[in-house]
Write a structure and sequence with these properties.
Helices cover 45% and strands 9% of the residues. The chain is mainly alpha-helical and 550 residues long. The strands form 5 sheets. The protein has a 3-stranded parallel sheet with strand order 1-2-3, covered by helices on one side. A 3-stranded antiparallel sheet has the order 4-5-8.
């Protein structure tokens, strides 16, 4: 067959050659040992923990030795595209302090778009140039089979218990003559472009996975689709060309793609490309509460798979990165404990140390890391983090909470110990932190208040005497002595030893008196030091709340 004639017949308007694009997208000038990695999601509008897990690995591999980490959008499936998905990807990863060096979302200038465009639908001319070249070499051909015909073949293969797919005797369009092809084209029949696979069912490929080591798999024998009926490439074809022309050196991807490695191995070799290093990551697993066994994190079952889950509750991005690093590199945890004051970006990240089997997602461990890392932040770092989270997720409360910066800092010192030697280590995320002290702010959305344990006549008597004796200038000791006097006057024990010796002689003790005041002022039965709370809150607000109860 005259394959050059066939190539011109199928691609009459394609004039650029692969050599044109090889010259346009030259090898990158990078330092020794620098790697080029990419994140290449579909614009579906859902970005999950697995994406962050892989993106962090990509970013660390690229930036370890001055390489490049770029964003490419694989939008060949128009049905799955969601408006705003690209911005969501960039904003979400930026929230977790992962930045791209170039790619989709950047201004189209020379520096950040040199290897673009970064949307696959904008690269169709490039794919067609390589497709035409494969046809001219006899390595690709048009297939006119209808969906009904392909379904019929699939059913026959299943009945015969044979491998399903388009190959061998089932590849009926593989050996069409040029006259038959021309007749089909003149008749207006639509077609896909298929690879003329050179694989043999008796042979294997051997390649070294950067995580799993040497792997042997059967050669690809399927005549896979390269271009769909509308001329848009399939993932397999597009990603091979893009990774080559964008000069990708390492591809970090989920273990589910390992089964496609023979297809990609053949494509790279037939296209004349050097393969990047593939690193197939372990699945993120969790313990199933029903069975006790391990299973993959699921979009349907596990809300914690979505990154929105962590953003909405206000998990600090640095805490999330520290946790994911413990999953990505087996020696990170030891390094982080040894060099607790060092930025984790200084850790010598290595693909060799990545998890080969399923990485177990442990929410308790994540929370322990959050508690520890939050306790290391300065008061300004905590303040800025909480301010940003409130701006995004509690805009109605933000202006109330942050109207007085010094007041907020005093609250954080009381509740978190920021700026002090002893730090509180039981706080996990922003939403939880605000729930602790939202009572400081009138007009803020708060939880239901705790109930008084004493009857309301006793509550009124205690609160009335408290307001009569209160002096805002009293120090903590003088303030508490007045609480004791109130206790004695109303039949409560001011002396705990006396109370324990003869509890039947008293209505209660001074702690019951303090609890009434605490609930009236804060709505909570348990808080830090009440005198400090009152002096952060201010006398006017305190009196107003007690008057409301009265």
């Amino acid at each position: 067959m005259n394959y050059n004639k066939l190539a011109d017949m199928l691609f009459p308007n394609v004039t650029n050659t692969p050599e044109f694009y090889e010259a346009k997208f030259v090898e990158r000038k990078l330092p020794n040992n620098a790697e080029v990695t990419r994140m290449a999601p579909s614009p579906t509008g859902f970005i999950h923990l697995g994406n962050l897990y892989s993106a962090l690995a990509d970013e660390r591999i690229a930036h370890k030795n001055g390489g490049v980490f770029y964003l490419r959008i694989e939008d060949t499936d128009e049905k799955r595209k969601v408006d705003g998905a690209v911005e969501l990807i960039i904003d979400t990863l930026r929230y977790f302090d992962i930045e791209f060096d170039e790619g989709a979302g950047f201004d189209e200038n020379e520096q950040t778009n040199a290897y673009g465009p970064y949307f696959q639908r904008q690269r169709v001319d490039i794919y067609h140039a390589y497709a035409k070249n494969l046809v001219a070499k006899g390595l690709a051909y048009p297939c006119f089979c209808t969906e009904e015909e392909l379904d019929s073949v699939r059913k026959e293969q299943e009945e015969q218990k044979e491998l399903t797919g388009y190959y061998g005797k089932y590849a009926v369009c593989r050996n069409l003559t040029i006259e038959e092809i021309e007749a089909n084209l003149l008749a207006g029949k639509s077609y896909v472009l298929r690879l003329r696979s050179q694989g043999s069912p008796e042979k294997e490929i051997t390649f070294v996975d950067a995580i799993k080591g040497e792997i042997k798999l059967p050669e690809n024998i399927h005549d896979i689709v390269l271009l769909k009926r509308d001329g848009i490439p399939t993932y397999h074809f597009a990603h091979a060309i893009d990774d080559h022309l964008m000069r990708t050196t390492v591809v970090v991807r989920g273990g589910e793609w390992l089964a496609s490695a023979p297809i990609h191995y053949e494509l790279f070799h037939l296209l004349g490309f050097k393969m990047p290093k593939y690193a197939h990551t372990a699945h993120l697993m969790k313990i199933d509460e029903e069975t006790g066994g391990k299973r993959k994190l699921s979009k349907r079952k596990d809300p914690e798979l979505s990154l929105d889950y962590y953003k909405k509750d206000g998990y600090h991005p640095y805490c999330m990165k520290v946790y994911l690093m413990t999953l990505l590199n087996s020696n990170f945890e030891e390094w982080h404990e040894k060099f607790a004051d060092k930025d984790i970006n200084e850790f010598p990240f290595s693909i060799d140390k990545m998890n080969q089997s399923g990485a177990l997602f442990d929410k308790d461990k994540l929370h322990n890391i959050c508690k520890n890392e939050l306790s290391k932040l300065s008061e300004n770092e905590v303040y800025d983090f909480l301010y940003q989270w409130a701006s995004d997720y509690e805009p109605e409360n933000k202006d109330i909470w942050f109207a007085d910066k010094e007041k907020m800092l005093r609250i954080l010192r009381l509740y978190m110990g920021v700026g002090m030697k002893r730090r509180r280590k039981d706080l996990v995320y922003a939403k939880q932190i605000f729930e602790l002290f939202s009572y400081f702010f009138d007009g803020s959305k708060t939880d239901e208040k705790d109930s008084f344990k004493l009857d309301m006549d006793e509550v009124h008597a205690i609160l009335t005497k408290y307001l009569e004796s209160y002096n805002h200038a009293d120090d903590n000791s003088a303030w508490f002595n007045k609480l004791k006097e109130i206790a004695d006057s109303l039949g409560y024990a001011s002396d705990m030893k006396a109370y324990k010796a003869s509890p039947e002689n008293f209505k209660g003790n001074v702690s019951d008196v303090a609890e009434v005041i605490r609930i009236a002022v804060t709505g909570r039965a348990n808080t830090p030091d009440l005198w400090t709370i009152v002096h952060i809150m201010g006398e006017a607000q305190m009196r107003e709340r007690i008057e409301t109860v009265l």
